[in-house]
Amino acid sequence: MTPTGQAEPFEILIVGGGPAGLAAGAEAARQGVPHIVLERGELAQVIVWYQKQKLVMSEPADLPLHQDHPLKFQEGPREAVLQAWTDGTKAAGTNVRTGPANEVLAIEGSKGAFTIQLRAGRRLTARHVVLALGQSNLNRFDCPGADLPHVTYQLSDPGEHEDQKIVVVGVGDAGIENALALCEKNEVSIVNSGTEFPRAQSRNQDLLYRAIAAKQVVHYTNAQVKRFEERAIIVGTNEGEVRIEADLVICRIGARPPTEFLKRLGIAPASKDPNAVPPVSETYESVVPGIYLVGAVIGYPLIKNCLNQGYEVVRYILRQPVEPADEPKLRSMFANARLPGSVTGNLESIKRTIPLFASITNVQLRDFIGKARLLRTEPGEVIIKRNTRADALYAILEGRVTVAIPDSDAAADTVYGDAEAGAPSTFDLESGQFFGEMSLLSDRLHGGTVTAKATSVVVWAPRQAVITLMKKDATVRNILDEAFVFRRLRNLMGQTVPNAEVQALAKTAVLETFEAGATVFSEGDHRLAGRPHHDGGRLGGHRAAMQPIGQQAHLAEELPRLQVEGARGTRFRVAIHGVRGGIGVWDGDRHAAFQDRVQGVGSCVPLDDHFTGLGA
């Protein structure tokens, strides 16, 4: 007991009683370290929130728990896991306090002398703080009707629902599991903003595909929630708005980390993206010395990741040697790719060699590479074949590859061919560069064939891992987006325009998403410096006004001629792209004209490489 008014002291204070927090508490108890686990809800609240009888999967499947882990876990139903962790926590002697009074409101001080303020008004002190907070802030819709009583964000007991029309929004694991649990006794639809289920575990993907094929679940693809109405949900699809009758709508659209709380501690996420997570060191220490982050709060919601990180962080705090649970797997991967050196050394080599991964933490990189493959290829070996399905991103760690793209789709037609087609476009990529992102991000078949030109080591990263990393790290997302735009423009313009000019054009591009039926632009409108303007039109029969660096130029098109009028002394490059990427280019400072086959894609670029406009 502490004297009245005096803060209760601990060596390690753990915030959050989910799998990561309970694992940290159990290890601290075994080590005989004064500790406390604070949970504002129930013990293992994240599991309590699961639907009844939900199968708690042992994921990642190929990641073992530490052999001497004090909190055991076996795949099984929700109720069995909760009982096992309740018993395990008691057996370990973990000091746990649950309930709203134990919510942490503030953490002040510095490493070795933190003061923690609780909602109940009590104060605690700790030398080290571990935040195992999870992502407890549910995302919610902010649209008309979102507050109607049939719109909810959790499903507790599927057995309570029978002979109802139920719509599940979201195709992550939670949404898929809700739909599968309800579809036997109800009329179930699932709303998907895309066409696939990249965020879900493969087991859940397979089960949902089977349910859709068996017509147990109706699948709405490329669908966006527009509004809710009494006993209905309205979604926008490629075919227009669809009204789906619903007795119940379950919105499983993810959750966010407690960003505002973290910011008050001086721990900011890696970017302004709501899905971004804070960076941590290899020992899980945040940018604030003495405060450590583990589990879902840094982007690792899978249970075995959480359990291992909770165990490891206590060992790191106590300066005890511990080999990460994924070390044997990564060591084997690098050995099979014939990459000498340690796991840490190879991970550092990946970050140095491949700029795409330079911004992510070593913790994130370990997880990413663990989900990937390292392909060792020999000269002449085909890595990607044209017109095959895009399922991964490829990054070159060692060696060189050649990319071959047909002059047109017809040129690659083995039946009819194309007598007018030119030779395929080919270019080489070397270590540090990547490929496959165009097909991966656009969900299209590969447009070219990629062959190893030298003995190479290529990182093969599956779609789900890439999408997850893009959500966590804005730099990765921006690099991939810029590469996507550059190569798309490169394909449109052919090989006559220098890469530097295409790159300058790509750097100015802004990616925008339009729902089906939305107006991209109207006659009499055009875009200038990323903003819509009047007094012009679109290329393809109308006038387009574009303003370069303080000057005004006018493009007036009379098919198949393009008339260019520029202020005297102002130089432009005007490009109109033809049927197979053919391009006509004019450089000059006075009126001029040229002929080309026009497909309606045009750009006006000042010769100092600053892009000023793009017609569609």
Briefly characterize the structure.
With 616 residues, the chain is of the alpha+beta class. Helices cover 24% and strands 28% of the residues.
Characteristics:
single chain, 24% helix, Jelly Rolls, seven-stranded mixed sheet, five-stranded parallel sheet, 4 domains, alpha+beta, FAD/NAD(P)-binding domain, 616 residues
Tertiary shape: globular
Question: Could you say what the CATH topology of the largest domain is called?
Answer: FAD/NAD(P)-binding domain
Helix content class: 10-25%
Strand content is 25-35%
The residue-averaged pLDDT reads 82
Q: Assign the CATH superfamily of the largest domain.
A: FAD/NAD(P)-binding domain
- Terminal CA distance reads 73 Å
CATH class category name of the largest domain:
Alpha Beta
* Whole-number count of domains: 4
Structural class designation: alpha+beta
Compute the number of helices: 14
The CATH architecture of the largest domain can be given as 3-Layer(bba) Sandwich
User: What is the CA-atom radius of gyration, in angstroms?
Assistant: 28 Å
Strand count, sense and barrel status of the largest sheet are: 7 strands, mixed
